[in-house]
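Issue 218. Parser rejects a valid record. Input:
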Amino acid sequence: MFDITAYAATFIFLLLGVIVYRGPQNFAKCWLHLRSLKSPQRATTVPGLDPSDPVVIFPLDRKGNLDEIEDAGSLQQFLANLHAEYGDIASFYFTDQLCISIKSPELFQEHRTAFTKPYILFKLLEPLFTKESIVYAEESDVRKRRELTNRCFGFQALQNFIEIFNEITEHLVEKISSLPPGEHIPLNETCLGLSLKMIMLTVSGEYFKDDKTSTEFKKTYDLVWNEIESRFAGDIPPEGSGRIKTFKEAKEILFSFFGRIINNRRCNPPSDERAVFIDVLIKSDYQSEVLLADLETYLNGGFHASGYLFAWALFFLAEHDDIQEKLYNHVIDIVGKTGPVSMEHVAKMTLQ
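Output the parser choked on:
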């Protein structure tokens, strides 16, 4: 299992560079297609759930189907239940927002050109991302910014990172292998930590290559993110509270990290073929506020999406021994039992 974990980690992060890492505007694309409505009472021909809460005077007070999502235990399980009852396309309400969830790949093809996402998806992230972030920009501006940076995460660009990806995953496998038999391994924490280190390298270069810098950054980031997660759970702090002060102080430290990264890359510019996301932003003469906002947005979106995808992939592999064995043999046939994963290996991985 340790061998396949190393291969899976490297492969998943390379794959994410082509698929998940296409930009923050695509965070929710694989799950939901949302349409903004002035009123949640507007009829839809799509089968699904009506809002479960009573009629309220102020639309912002509406919970929609949040109670059902909570009862299901997760959005993933809620959507699985929803589609089991209503079919490949189904509707539900997220507060006062009508949401259309698409399960069928064929139906999803009809909506693959969807580009921007509703503000509601990122509303609670604005204190962290700031209003200058790409997720709050007008569509014309988003397209310009995406055209500028998309190449940083393509298959070709990721060749620059294959060596360090192998190094990081092999280090993790050695660490796990040294644990006593039966030792608990926190899946989410491990996958998010691995993801953060890899995403920091692809976004900002080798500034975070050493463990000390990564650990210091992660400690500050966790303070900020824990507050954001509390707000997602409905625990909004009052203005002037101690939580607001702690959040702002931690955010200032976080953005000071970004400032040091930017100064480092400006003083030590890489060659064009080794340029990463931050170098492209610097050369484009982004305003400092926009540069900082997009750096935080891509870092946050990239490592959360990657880390949770990795965690779920390992979770489901652990639940299905037959698929795990099939995948293991597929990787061994291509890579062998030892040795690093190459981009040529990844291109041959077509298991279905």
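Fixed in the parser; the record now loads. Confidence is low (pLDDT under 50) at residues 1-40.
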